[in-house]
Design goal:
The structure holds 2 protein chains of 2 kinds. Chain A is an alpha+beta fold. Chain A has 3 domains: about 5-90, RNA polymerase II/Efflux pump adaptor protein, barrel-sandwich hybrid domain (OB fold (Dihydrolipoamide Acetyltransferase, E2P), Beta Barrel); about 95-175, no CATH class; about 215-415, Chloramphenicol acetyltransferase-like domain (Chloramphenicol Acetyltransferase, 2-Layer Sandwich). Chain A has helices at about 85-90, 120-125, 135-145, 160-170, 175-180, 200-215, 225-240, 250-265, 310-325, 395-410, and strands at about 5, 15-20, 30, 35-40, 45-50, 55-60, 65-70, 70-75, 105, 115, 215-225, 270-275, 275-280, 285, 290, 295, 300, 335-340, 360-370, 375-390. In chain A, helix 3 (about 135-145) runs parallel beside helix 4, helix 8 crosses helix 9 and helix 8 packs across helix 10 (about 395-410). In chain B, helix 1 runs parallel beside helix 9 and helix 3 runs parallel beside helix 6. The chains are: A alpha+beta, B alpha/beta. The interface between A and B is small, with 12 and 9 residues.
Chain lengths: ~425, ~450
Amino acid sequence: MATEIILPQGGQDLAEAKVARWLKAEGDKVAKDELLCEIETEKAVFEVEAPEDGTLIKITVAGGKSAPVLSVIGYIGEPGEQVAESIDSESEVPVSGETTSSGKTVIAPDSIEIVREFDQPQSMTTDVSRIKISGRARRRAEEQQINLGLLQGSGPCGRVVEKDILTYSGATGQQLSSLQPSSSISYPDAAGKRVPLTKMRQVIARRLQESMQQLPHFYVTVAVEMDEALQVRADFNRALSRDDKRKLSVNDLIFKATALALEEFYEVNCHFREDHLLYLDDINIGVAVSLPSGLVVPVLEHADQLPLGDIAEETKRLIGLAKAGKQASVAPGSFTISNMGMLEVESFTAIINPPECGILAVSGIQKKVVVSKSGDLCIRQKMKMTLSADHRAVDGVLAANFTNKIKYHLQNPRTLLK
Amino acid sequence: MAAIRAAQMGADVTVIEKKVLGGTCLNWGCVPTKTLLQSARCYQSVLNSSKFGVYNTMQSFRFDKMVQRKDAIVKTNVNGIKHLFQKNKINSFEGTASLVDQNIVSILYPDGKTESLKADAIIIATGSEPLTPKFLKFDGDRVITTTEALKLDTVPKSIAIVGGSVSGCEFASLFSQLGAEVHLIEMLEGIVPTEDKEIASKLTSELKMSGINILTNSPVESIERIYPSGDVKLAIKGQASRQVEYCLLTLGRKLNTKNIGLESLGIKHSPTGIEVNAQMQTNVENIYATGDVTGKMLLAHVASEQGIVAVEHIMGKKVSMDYQTVPAFIYTHPEISSVGRQEGELKKEGINYLTGKNYFNSNAMAMGMGEADGFVKVLADAKSHQILGIHVIGPHATDLLGEMVTVIKNKMTVEQVKDVIHPHPTLSEVIKEAVLATIDQAIHG
């Protein structure tokens, strides 16, 4: 019996991905864990390994084609083995511009599938209440008065996601414009180089615009005295060899401090969902990584359970993978840190990455003249950080306590070494 | 101690320890606490040296150095145990033990491997750990137990100690002598409720005099951390809230009865301890329990005596445990010690008794030492003059008790002690004088 090769769930908000290229051809022998193909998502490229030893007997999604996550993209089995027709047709993925034998017309501009049923009676009998649909998609469908029975979901297990609504309502390809205010301004012609939006840029634009428009952001800024933290970091690093991966950056200290703060103020370690708050069991902190093409946020899982040296090693690995365009992590983030310290910014604010409820914007360390407790003037290394919080989930006092706890740990850095 | 005695008696002995040989007392309890208290005393001597005509200009200390000294002393003692084990050919393993059946113990090593050992007799001595009720939000950072308090690298500027029992008072004394602002918070009407009332009241006034803020009848209702200072804010029933740098929880101890296989063998136990008879046997006859886990008296010297009773019984001797003459100490400044009956008990039981008291301020040695505060109180049977109890608060109270433990254990009378010459000038004279005071024959009364 042939084994299915499944297109992995590459990220929490991904519904589909593109098979960039196959590294093996049909009929090739493959060993378990051998690389089969590369998958490209909106954010990254990652690899799919053979689930077991055998022969790649069939490729169902060719290189360059897209498919929903968790669908079958090929089979491994005995040479000459036929893939059972039933499996084959059930799992067959609609591909751009083809008309399938079942009478459905599948159109997929820009590799996003739109499925429209032309057989009205069948679709009218669908029990709308039993359709699998995300909360956001349901709300959008209601806004646009779309009959849910007419939709075919592209999410895992056929779940209808927001994108299906957008594509169904004809907004495909103009998703951005549909999100812009209706009283759009017409701009005068201007000379310049037109650069079409890359997929990543589209995602960034859509998600951040949604976040800014839908999440009531508020901001809490604190200034942290970093002298002691820098000392602890220097002492820690001095004990390590030159190229030890556990060497700490300032960002690692902030990571650990934030993880400890999320542990106590678990109300910030939260996802805002349609009608409830989900306080997350795991503390998974994302770190914003800048790429020439845009921005990705690899996630460090269980950040609260890692000692400082491991945080340093693991974030280095994740950032390295992200910069190489590889899928670095698949866990859903619970909070994000955006650090522009190395860019010497005085302060800035960041946009929340929903469904998370907070993001910490960390600025550069600068020498400042301050008045000490005893009233003397002295020079201290100060760093500003600004928490952006979603006021639907987080209130002011909580945000202040949470941010101040991060400050406490950074100003008492020995607490980070425990 | 049990292991060494067993080996001396010819048994093949294996000890399985989860953390470090020596247990709580040596590693996280009495020994490190007393060592740090000695550093604090030393600092106080330096501060008060001018009373002795000694002048010094450098009056400073480093707590981290005190902690280092303490660690070195603990280590020396742990190595001493290792040496004694080797000498007596005792096997010891680092791992977590649990009972499999009446004769088999399985060991889980730190690397995840397991092994089973067969034994004719098994002694459970899993001890106890500090109790940390959930609502008091122990975090090991600023809300701590004695384990963390012994590892601090600086003296807290201010500390609230919740629980006015022995260890609460000892840490209050320690940090207060090193200049911390100390709040000692007790739920009951008085601190050290297990001690003689008069002694407890004297300790209360001495600690207050030394600057400790003692709150009694004051249950702590909640604890919260304040950021960015990291301070701890305590809400206390009937009192204004207190904001301090550290909060130390000294609320007694939780017995380690979990995950050691008691249930699978049907060994009777409750949260107050494993049930044992006077020979330290559990209801499974070849399985014994000793130390804190029996919930009898959570004292190291009781545990080691229990261990020796258990071992001697295993090896066929007729022995039993006697809790009547267990001495108790508190290493505050001033120190407290006691052995035998308390006045309150005698009153309640309607026993006619004589009381004798003598104060250190009439003792030449105590005056010379500049520590003349405190007294000795002796209780004797009115008819037989047998000495029933003795309670000391004052300089070296803990060392002075040795003599009286022998007296109580051997049921000696006032007259027998009267005949014993006590050296002069020593603090021990106060003991003799207090004994004589029961029959109104004290010289310096």
